[in-house]
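Subject: for your reference before the review

Hello V.,

The reviewers asked for a structural picture of the protein, and I figured it would be easier to keep everything in one thread rather than splitting it across files. Below is the amino acid sequence we used in the manuscript, unchanged from the supplementary table.
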Amino acid sequence: MNIHPTAIVSPKAKLAESVTVGPFAIIDESCEIGENCVIAARAHVEYTVMGSSNYIGEGAMIGAAPQDLKYHNEPSMVKIGSNNVIREYASIHRATHEGAATVLGDSNFLLTMVHIAHDCVIGNKNTIINNVGMSGHVTLDNCAVISGYALIHQHVRIGSYVMLGGGSKIVKDVPPFMMIDGNPSQIHGLNKVGLKRNGFTPERIKILEHLYTHFFRDKSLLFADAVEKIEETIPMNEDVKYFLEFIKNSQRGVSR
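And here is what came back from the structure prediction:
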């Protein structure tokens, strides 16, 4: 281990041999840190289990107590996968209830001052830009881009391959594959650039274009009618199944 002499690391913390800990960083006893992780200067990690090859930036706060009046010091955690980059002064708070966890998956990129609140569940390969505020119990699926200064309400779910515009206010669920922007926020089309960058073929994108037209552009169709038309007229591949599962199970209502 490469631990700077000014760092404070609990002897009860479990650190892999290849971990690097920078000046004045603090790692509390309730932590497990995997191979090749870097904890930069003045970062503070507590109540956290993380996999390998994560970078925790300068001044980041990982595992702090939730900002939730229902919390009364119950033992809870932050669970982080592997290959994440969490830049300077980002914060991820642990869950509110005993035995629960705030979760960050693999290969995510969190920029400066991003805040992930208690009980959030973040998937894989997401990019979250500077100063995003993500309230408690938010779910973010995979491969989305959340632009800077976006504000996301509690219990919102954001689907995979979404492009969320800077400064947006999100109070309803955001279906997968879409672009959304504004305050109040609105869907502005299919995220074609993001889909192409993630390897979607022209055929897959064409099917999603038809889906978008039925659900978002045809204003004469009510929610149930749009779903029925999609089920009747569009080939039922995995993308369409995922979209329909998402909107049918929405708890906060779907952004349209």
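For the response letter, the relevant points are probably these. The longest helix spans residues 202-217. The longest strand covers residues 185-190.

Happy to draft the paragraph if you're swamped.

O.
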